[in-house]
Model the fold of this input.
Amino acid sequence: MDQSTARRLLSEGAFFILLGVPEGTEFGIDLKSWNTGEKFRGVKMIPPGVHFIFYNSVSATTEDVAPRVGFFHNFKPGEVLVKKWSKVNEQISDEEVTESEIVSLKENLRALDSFLGPYPFDIAERWTSLSGNITEDLLAKLVPRCGQVRAALELQSCSDAERPRGAKRKKGEEANEPSCSEIKNLSGCGEHDLLPALKPIEGTELRLTKFPEKNYPEGSTPAEITQHSLDLTYVFETLLTQYSRPTEIIGELEFCYICFLVGHSLEAFDQWKKLVTLFCSCDSAITKYRKLFDLFITVLEIHINEIPEEFLADIVSNDNFVYVNLKKLFRSVCESHVDGQFKTKVDRFKNSLTTTFLWDFEHLDSDEDDEAPVVVET
Done:
């Protein structure tokens, strides 16, 4: 980094001090990770703003690596955040560090300097592009109550009353034909009945925004249900009511992507996929929420470029939901009355994907058999 940036970060940069972390622990911040050395005590010169700190404990005897654990923190200029390592739990301790300990460490930062690694400034611009819409208020809403994002959810047994069940038939209601899963259960192959009833330990799960149970408002006619199934604007607008401001839906998209890409959370990846699919399935919302969709295109392009090559190859070899949904979005934009500037931006994005991944977006006016919508009969 240049000297002016170095001087600014030395005066404004934050500090993360981690006491007692074992040598060899996998530790990282944002998009970089290392194995800690004997002298490691933390990170200095952290740019103010939202960051994600993570680690994997490593067995000293077997070298087995535990699932990743991480947490978000919005660092203030010059802030000193201090955490301790729990040898018993082999993780960062929940125990509060006393104010006197923090004051003592602040007074001895110069002596600690050689034990603190500098923030990896080479990833600063990439990190800002990935996290730019995540606010402190949004983090307070989405982060688990325990404060930690875990790759492996901690589970506990749930009572019989809490165990998920199918919907009960109302009195006088005619029975429909059994589904495939019901037939399997009737034939003695109900594998779900043989599995233990488990649920995440309270406070450990991500508090992601819930989608409405139905894609349409109560009282909709069959024709309206069909329309709402083809155009998910109702779901989109219902979701927006759960945020303080519309751009928080983009912030949640970024939050989920980071929790998956860096935090290895499949729970977050599922929500990311649902949000991407939603944005790509709202024909009538494009013009009404033009600025939001413009921001979505910017963020999604960054996400696709950051996806590890081997993971993207896995997506493509399966259902490639990214390609299928983008094809729907590009078709909707093409048919919409949105302004030419936005259409030009979408065309540039489309051409970039074709050049990079050889994805074919020609003939957007035709539905492929496997993505043709199901129409509700009246």
